[in-house]
Each structure stands twice: as structure tokens, then as C-alpha cells.
Amino acid sequence: MAAAIPASLNPAGITTFCYSIFRAATGWLPSFSPASWMPSLRWVPTSDEALAAAERTILAYLKTPYEGKFITVVPDDSVTRPDPSKASHRIWTVSMNTEQPISETPIVLVHGFGGGVGMWAQNLDALASRRPLYAFDVLGFGQSSRPAFSTIAETAESQFIDSMEAWRKEMKLSKFILLGHSLGAFLAASYSLKYPEHVRHLIMVDPWGLPERPLDKDQQKLPIPFWIRTAAAVLQPFNPLAGLRAAGPWGPRLVGRFRPDLQRKFSTMIAEENAIFDYIYHCNAQAPSGESAFKAMTGGFGWAKSPMSGRMTTMASHVPVSFIYGSRSWIDHNVAYTVKDSRNDAFTEIILVSGAGHHVYADKPAEFNDLVGKICRRVDDEDAKKSKI
Predict the structure, then answer these.
(1) What string of DSSP letters covers 277-324?
(2) Do 126 and 97 form a contact (C-beta atoms < 8 A)?
(3) How many helices (H) and strands (E) does the chain have?
(4) What CA–CA distance (Å, rounded) separates 22 from 29?
(5) Cys-Cys crosslink for 242: which of 58, 196, 238, 365, Cβ 3.0 to 4.6 Å?
(6) Residue-by-residue DSSP string for 52-118
(7) CB distance 319 to 199 below 8 Å
């Protein structure tokens, strides 16, 4: 049975508790009391400046000039927010090829959970070669504002979508190709359901949140190791990345310890050994805003409370949908075929990238860029035919 967590734990006690759990799981964090560091020293060594610097280090390897700036958005008052005193938010946005593109149809990129613009480093040059490209840090993640989100799943999702539409208005975008990965794919689909008139083509890359939660645990695609299930049960009251912050000054090393593959994924482009680790750490060591919203939207072991597969049956038929999955991903791609069948004559395709895992865009960047490029050119060809009629 998982250990019970005393309700009376103060912040220092919670930090110590999380730290002990991750020390037991990893076997390498030193025996040390995090509480002894507080409040005299900064336990979580991060800042807005450190995150911005980490992103600049990664984007310095781009060959295409880019512009990065904050876009101030004012969400719609119709969406209930826990903190109405903060009337506006800032959305960090990177823009490329906006002056003289070959195609006028832009592409908008929406990153996944715990990510940011920098995760698209190996894709930005290629995807911006013919058209305007916009990539933004989702509200509550990266360099964007980190407001309080609702603890109600539907409201938290609406806050994400509301901020995306407010961002679109500020950017003065009419129609665009919308591409999202994981949680970003879920949000992109939700946006397309509410604002189909602005989506020229929806590309869902290894999307989170499609399937219904199985009633029978034996129906799950992959068995979940016992230690992961135990840790998840123990840490359930906390946000998903509480352990990263609990690790304090060892946090950056924790990223590398758990995900050494990330350095390999980006090694052909980024020379600095720890650049991607530093970026991911600083993206997630700060206030858990979007992270808290994601927690509100999940039930059980990462299942969406409002799964997207059934909802996509009502998506406007004029919105084409392309699913791109990694053949080795832990995400079950079979549900995409159910979505395809339910959309009848609406264009829906499923593409598997051989040898790629969940992070398809980083595992096989050249193949991913080529696939997305072909989808985008198909959109251009269709628009050209319509203009001649």
C-alpha cells in the first residue's frame, strides 16, 4: 500500500517528502534535507532570465532569422477564471518567414506538456521554408504567463482555448495550418472544434487524450511497471513535475538522469552538451501553472477526463485531419482509426513514422519535416485550385 501523506505538511515538509520519493526511485540523489536549505538559499535554481537564456542557446542554431516577442492577450470574459484581477496574459511567440513567404498560408505550432518553443528547434527551419511560421509557449508553460487555472477539467481546457483564440486575434491570423504535439494536439483539436473557420488543416502529432479510459485495466496498451504505479499513487496529491522542483539544485541533473535520450535526439543540431536539459529544466522548474491545469484535466494514470475521440465526431467536415504517430510510441494509435471511421467522408489520414517514439518531431526530424511539408504543400495546391474556379 502506498504511503499516506500527512495533510499537515508545510511547504518544506512537502519538498522533503517528494525529495525522498525521488531519491528512492533514482538511487543517486544525495542523502540531504532540502528543508535545511530554506529559506536562506534558492532551493529551485531557476528564473525567467535563465529560461530565456536557455531558449536563446538552442535557437541560436537556427539558419532562418526569427523574431521572439511577447503577445499580450485579453481572454474573453465569458470564460470563468479563478483570478479575474489579472485581465491580460503574455504569450511568448516566435515568428519566422513573415515578410516574403512563397505560401501565404501560415503554420502554427503548439508544443506538448512541459515543453516550449525550443522543442521545435530541429523543425523550425524546414517548416518555415515556404510559409510564415508561428510557434508559441502555451499559456502556463515556457515563457508565457502562468496564471491560476480552474481545477475543473472543462473550465481549465476552455482557459487554454480562450487564450489561443485571443492570441490569434492579436496576431491577425485568418486561416492557418494548426499542428500540435501530445497535449498540444489535444488543445489543437479542441480549438478546431470551437473555431473551425480558422483551421485550414489540423495535424495531430502523437496526441494525448484521445481514447476513453478503459474500464478493464487489462485493456491498457502497455503494462505499467509496479514502481511507476506506486510512485504515481504516492505523488497523486502533487502536480506531475513536483519531484523535479523537490530535487532543487539537483533538478537539472534529474532531467538528464531520467531522459538521457533527449541529448541524443538533439545532438546533430545542438553542440552544447546540456543545452536541452537546461531548457527543459527551466521550462518546468517554475510555478506549475499549465501543469496544474493538465492535472485537472486528467484522471487515473494520465487519462483525459474529456477524451477527444468521441468529440471529434462533431468536428466540421471541412477541416482535414492528419494524425502522425511514432511506431514505437507509448501512445495507442488505433483510436485514430475509430476517429477516421466516425468522420465519414471528411478527410482523415493516419501516418506511422517507423522507428520514432512519442517525440516524433525529434526522433525522426528529417522524415517528420518532409511529411508535414507534403501536407502543407497539399493545402497550397488545394487553395490554388479553388482560386482558379
Answers:
(1) HHHHHHHHSS--SHHHHHHHHEETTTEESS-HHHHGGGS-TTS-EEEE
(2) no
(3) 15, 10
(4) 8
(5) 238
(6) HHHHHHHHTT-SS-EEEEEEEE---TTS--S-TT---EEEEEEEES-SS-S-S--EEEE--TT--GG
(7) yes
User: What does the pLDDT profile of the chain (389 residues) look like in tens digits?
Assistant: 333 433 333 444 444 444 444 444 444 444 444 444 443 345 567 899 999 999 999 999 999 999 999 999 997 665 545 455 457 999 999 999 999 999 899 999 999 999 999 999 999 999 999 999 999 999 999 999 999 999 999 999 999 999 999 999 999 999 999 999 999 999 999 999 999 999 999 999 999 999 998 876 555 555 544 434 444 444 444 566 767 777 777 777 777 777 788 888 998 999 888 899 999 999 998 888 999 999 999 987 789 999 999 999 999 999 999 999 999 999 999 999 999 999 998 999 999 999 999 999 999 999 999 999 999 999 999 999 888 77
Beta bridge partners of 70: 92
User: Please, how many CA atoms are within 13 Å of residue 131, restricted to the half-sphere of its CB?
Assistant: 23
> Which amino acid appears at position 205 of this protein?
V
Other CB atoms within a 10 A radius of the CB of residue 86 amount to 12
